[in-house]
Amino acid sequence: xxxxxxxQTYFLTITIxxxxxxxxxxxxxxxxxxxxxxxxxxxxxxxxxxxxxxxxVIAVVxxxxxxxxxxFIEALWDLGSVDISSVPLLHYDIFARNLGVAEDIASLPDPxxxxxxxxxxxxxxxxxxxxxxxxxDLWKREAEYVLTPRARGETTLIPYKTLGQRKVHVFINNPFxxxxxxxxxxxxxxxxxxxxxxxxxxxxQFLVEYIKDHPLxx
Length: 218
Fold this sequence. Notes:
Blueprint: E1 8-16, H1 25-38, E2 44-51, E3 56-63, H2 66-77, E4 82-91, H3 92-99, H4 103-106, E5 118-125, H5 132-151, E6 156-162, E7 167-173, H6 177-185, H7 188-193, E8 197-206, H8 207-213
Antiparallel strand pairs: 1-3, 1-4, 2-3, 2-8, 4-6, 5-7, 5-8, 6-7
């Protein structure tokens, strides 16, 4: 669902770097979460996740004031052994409408993600061998294919497009990994353009759930 006018949405990746002397991963992740909470009045967290099995936190944030965002990023850097990247996002409903997808499919509130069986999918899409018009027509059909069952309440997924790039992030609930894997091969853009697609999948958990299950050691 699109953000309010004047608010920019960013995708953050916060990677905790290994140190020769070792580090306290749990403490650092708590520090990252505390920083999000300390800046809650200036940087609105839409989603924040711990990547399962990795020393990495990802987040989607809405930013009304760039100065506050820079201060927030600086506070994250102050934690020490982290690498941070941020890229602006376009809400997928805006992109879908730009492609010509009908309002009643594209412009609906985001579904509520559940804490179990939660995945983060990334798709990088090229179109070698296709004209731009043919590629955009294919992407329109892809958007309709993905968003129509979501509009019917049949799937729980939230897609974002990276601004100015052919890259899509998707957060999705699916209790059956095999079905999710099969579904990725049934996408129109994969069937017709699969040689130009790079896909990655990660399990994620809500950061608040990680914090709850991994309290600081006394």
